Amino acid sequence: MKVGFVGLGSMGYALADNLRSAGHALTAYDSNPERVKSFARRGSKQAATPAGVAQDAEVVFTCLPGPVEVEEVALSETGLLRAMKPGAIWFDLTTNSPETIRKLHQVFHARGIALLDAPISGGPSGAKTRQLALWVGGEQTIFAKHEGFLRSIADCPLYMGPIGAGCVTKIVHNSASFTAQSALAEAFVLGVKEGLDPLRLFAALRDGTTGRRRTFDRLAEQFLSGIYEPPAFALTLAHKDIGLALALARSRDYPMPQAEIAQQDMKRGIERGWGLRDARISLSLHEERAGVSIQIPKEQIDRLLAE
Questions:
Q1: What was the pLDDT predicted at 42?
Q2: First to last CA, the chain
Q3: Which candidate, 146, 154, 188, 186, places its Cα nearest to that of 170?
Q4: CATH number for the domain running over 213-306
Q5: CA 188 from centroid of its chain's CA atoms
Q6: Selecting from 3.40.640.10, 3.30.1330.30, 3.40.50.720, 3.30.160.40, what CATH number does the domain 2-169 have?
């Protein structure tokens, strides 16, 4: 296929190179001319503007820092809208704003150009090896037609829903990742402050209940199904344990804001009479705050995990 690629940063360079290696005719652009020249030496064409990338392309990819850069590449005087032909397809790999991608979708759809948001997760090393998750929002028929093509850059392309759904998935993933990292670091530092060897503590935690499981798999244990009985670990016990951690932290004059938030939700759950139910029932308070109900049938969860 004739492919245009805009954005040759740490992720984009490797992704574009995988497309070239897969045999596609590639034209590339980056705001840094040296990046474009370096990439062109690997056997691809170079363009001086985003419009130059899009002029003859059947498919265009953008991999940019954020919403501002995507809008500029899309709508400027030398942007994609000026050059893309009706029937062409644009996959935006950027971690973008759902609002921005939906607005651009309307503009490009009016010109007969399909835009799908397709943010990626896996980092620069994953970009090189194609070990990436690629979460797609937009027209499902277009995704289905191009799923094999998308596997040139990612081994796990997944259709998420209408336009913007890919961006929402990526935002949820990164928000959870960074918050979890903060909570892990907060608790880990408590152990080090109390005199434990950091390397030995790290090795020990990896062997614990949480350390032995993939991070998001823990949601499947009670939260996704909404089944909190019989308890695997009672809320009263969890509240006691986090209270011990906070008492120790206070004795060392060490603040633990992430743990404080978790303890407050546990306290609210106990006040509602949930103390003997599973500790994860306190997570259901987030559903109440958002006005949503999840409750996926357990057999569906088990089937997905088995797959």
A1: 83
A2: 32
A3: 154
A4: 1.10.1040.10
A5: 24
A6: 3.40.50.720
> Within 13 Å of residue 229, how many CA atoms lie on the same side as its CB?
4
For 293, the token pair is: 């109900």
Which of 260, 261, 266, 259 is closest to 282 using CA atoms?
A: 266
Q: How far is CA 15 from CA 3, 6, 62, 269, in A?
A: 12, 11, 10, 47
Residue-wise pLDDT for 59-83, tens only, equals 999 999 999 999 999 999 999 999 9
Main-chain phi, psi angles of 70, to 5 degrees: -65, -45
Do the domains spanning 2-169 and 213-306 agree at the CATH topology level? no
**Structure tokens that stand for 124 in this block:** 């620069």
Q: What is the pLDDT of residue 307?
A: 86
pLDDT digits 0-9 by tens, 236-261: 999 999 999 999 999 999 999 999 99
Tally Cβ neighbours within 10 Å of residue 230. 9
Q: How many CA atoms lie less than 13 Å away from 282 in the CB half-sphere?
A: 21
**Beta-strand (E) ranges in the chain?**
2-6, 25-29, 45-46, 59-62, 89-92, 114-117, 120-121, 133-137, 156-161
pLDDT of 174 higher than 90: yes
Closest alpha carbon to 251 in 193, 198, 186, 192 = 193
Flag whether pLDDT at 43 surpasses 90: no
Instruction: List the domain boundaries for the chain.
Output: 2-169, 213-306
Contact 187, 259 (CB under 8 A): yes
Angle CA(179)–CA(182)–CA(184) in degrees, nearest 5?
Answer: 110
- pLDDT at position 86 is 97
Quickly state the pLDDT bin for 262 (edges 50, 70, 90).
Answer: very high
Q: Which regions of 2-93 does DSSP assign to beta strands (E)?
A: 2-6, 25-29, 45-46, 59-62, 89-92
